[in-house]
Design goal:
3-stranded antiparallel beta sheet
Length: about 350
């Protein structure tokens, strides 16, 4: 598989976004978040999203300019109307503001209604953890639904991702999960490739478990199972309700309102350990637990117990050094729009 310089991919994405109408500084943030997703191995939520983003900008469904509207502002909390501005730019800005306010108040939360799609949640965690902060990010999309509540057969939720990053003595822990067993992005990728999941992670329209992503494209459509599947899906159901409360609930805007197109409602919270037991004490506790996990005897068939984010950080270092391996579907999808905008596809490293 061909490899591409991460810097070349960032420049390529930034150039496309700028030619589509984004200011250079905003295009740079969006490009960085997308490439970071691929560096960390989240290949459905990195540059795989770029062609769709460009299409949304061209249609006017993703606003290329403007500032979010402040709807509520207190010292440790902030609510924005994102006005459908680029999600990665809004979310990274929200994370930076939350971190800065948490330095003073110990914690700070930014909630964004009417953001556009925010790509890979893990991409926002590293910057906070490197500064010694805990960062939580959650997202829902009231425009669509593909996940049924536990025991049901009709979709109510999106996969409703939730991420948390925090420092240890070494690499940070990066947890990026969703309330569903799999994502819309992976389902769409397998459906287009006429492939199946390794396990029955979906329900067809009648409520029967299936491994075929085509079940999501029938009329009526099937659904993605919540985390825990048929046996313990109440756990994912509970997570989905939590994410909906943190996003649409706190934003005061969500599934109870008219649909406005592909987008996101976003929750970003930063915590400063120095406002609690202290940063050194936090790292001591985090590292103790991390080491207990690493030293845990693996069950048969498992080489070693890994921490969330461990593989992603190793992959990130390897790909920064030797080039990013893009999924085979990404550049062909970008070829036509790159040609139309007069941008040359990146050369293999």
């Amino acid at each position: 598989m061909a490899r591409y310089s991460a810097d070349a991919l960032r420049k390529f994405a930034q150039t496309l976004l700028t030619k589509a109408g984004l200011a250079e500084d905003r295009a740079a943030v969006v490009a960085d978040v997308l490439v970071e997703g691929d560096l960390l191995g989240h290949t459905t939520h990195g540059l795989a999203q770029l062609a769709a983003y460009l299409g949304e900008i061209e249609k006017g469904s993703m606003r290329a300019s403007g500032e979010p509207t402040v709807l509520n502002d207190r010292p440790a909390s902030l609510l924005w109307d994102g006005l459908r501005l680029p999600g990665p730019w809004l979310t990274m800005r929200a994370a930076d503001i939350a971190i800065e306010r948490a330095r003073t108040y110990g914690t700070a939360t930014v909630v964004i209604r009417r953001s556009h799609h925010i790509a890979c949640l893990a991409a926002y965690l590293l910057r906070a953890a490197e500064q010694g902060f805990v960062l939580l990010v959650a997202s829902s999309d009231a425009n669509s639904a593909s996940v049924a509540p536990f025991g049901g057969t009709r979709a109510v939720f999106t996969p409703d991702p939730l991420a948390i990053g925090f420092p240890t003595a070494g690499d940070p822990v990066l947890v990026d999960i969703s309330a569903s067993v799999t994502t819309n992005g992976m389902s769409a990728r397998l459906y287009k490739a006429k492939q199946r999941f390794a396990h029955p992670w979906l329900l067809d329209a009648e409520g029967n478990a299936t491994d075929d992503p085509a079940a999501l494209y029938t009329d009526p459509p099937g659904t993605i199972l919540p985390v825990g599947g048929l046996e313990a899906g109440h756990k994912g159901y509970g997570l989905a309700l939590l994410v909906e409360a943190l996003t649409g609930g706190l934003a005061g805007f969500g599934r109870a309102d008219p649909k406005q197109g592909w987008g996101a409602t976003v929750f970003v919270q930063a915590l400063d350990p120095d406002a609690f037991g202290g940063r050194d004490a936090f790292v001591r506790q985090a590292e103790f637990i991390a080491q207990q996990c690493r030293d845990n005897p693996p069950r048969p068939g498992v080489d070693a117990v890994r921490l969330p984010g461990e593989r992603a950080m190793a992959m990130r270092r390897e790909q920064l050094a030797h080039g990013v391996q893009l999924h085979e579907s990404i550049l062909p999808a970008l070829g036509p729009v790159a040609q139309r905008l007069g941008v040359t596809l990146p050369a293999a490293a």
